[in-house]
């Protein structure tokens, strides 16, 4: 989760809770049991915020699942989960309000009541309250302790937040100046944004085999659509023994290259100016090794030994597929990692979800790209 900057009260990230109140003294009774904020995402699943007065006996989670809000409440009165209402992962700003009134907990979206739970909470207005913690974009409990399991990571953005409508100063668990703190983009579009300093790794065992259901033949197909400027970077790599690349698809300033086992190379010139905004298709069959960009395609005969080596690696789940680099680990080496928007990537006709990656650099926004590659933020919310 990414905050619009600057704004008092805390920050949030995709990977963990970053807001907590001061430990001394304990929280006094809040004047109003309501929290509100503006929220925007394309991500269908993840934690929006978590709150507790004790992780063992009193916690609340607001999250998304299949694009719709889901509330989970665990306390001495009940263990309950409810979901429904409108889909919120449409890339538009929505005003979210969570309110506690007596024994009721209500979720309002853009002023409309979406979810209401009754007899699930003690009244907390005008009552002594213990220390309260709020985590934005993450949990203070383990994911397997949730009543309904979900992937906590959420690629989203919040702004104009007001936690419990209290003037009490909150203690920030992380700083806006931390490396992982990110600013909201002015406009967003669907896709995955790579900032040029990290990649994502998928185990081959988690990807489709590519075997034909009719005759059992094997082929490899990788389809991408990207928006990027001229650069020297790796788009896709299949790694084998000792993490050595067996297949690579790279951007080399004005050219797009595909390399099979460091021997068979395809080179396709990019459009004038080097900017890329066209569908790509890399395809390997027993007879041909081809690379297509828009309506242009080049190919070479496939060497039998190189094909069989990659086929054996893939079908025996002995390697990994790296997107956005030749390794997922972050490095200082410039020009190694892809910088741009990956609108779509399909491997063996299966669309990859970066939330399901074996490893993903926290610099990657899994479900959103800036409307422009400059990555500007809202003028009213920060530089």
From TrEMBL:
Keywords: Disulfide bond, Glycoprotein, Lipid-binding, Repeat, Secreted, Signal, Steroid-binding. CDD domains: LamG. SUPFAM superfamilies: Concanavalin A-like lectins/glucanases (SSF49899). GO terms for molecular function: steroid binding. Disulfide bonds join 157-184. Residues 13-32, 363-383 are annotated as: Disordered. It comes from the Eukaryota. It is found in: Secreted. GO terms for cellular component: extracellular region. Functions as an androgen transport protein, but may also be involved in receptor mediated processes. Each dimer binds one molecule of steroid. Specific for 5-alpha-dihydrotestosterone, testosterone, and 17-beta-estradiol. Regulates the plasma metabolic clearance rate of steroid hormones by controlling their plasma concentration. This is Sex hormone-binding globulin. It comes from Notechis scutatus.
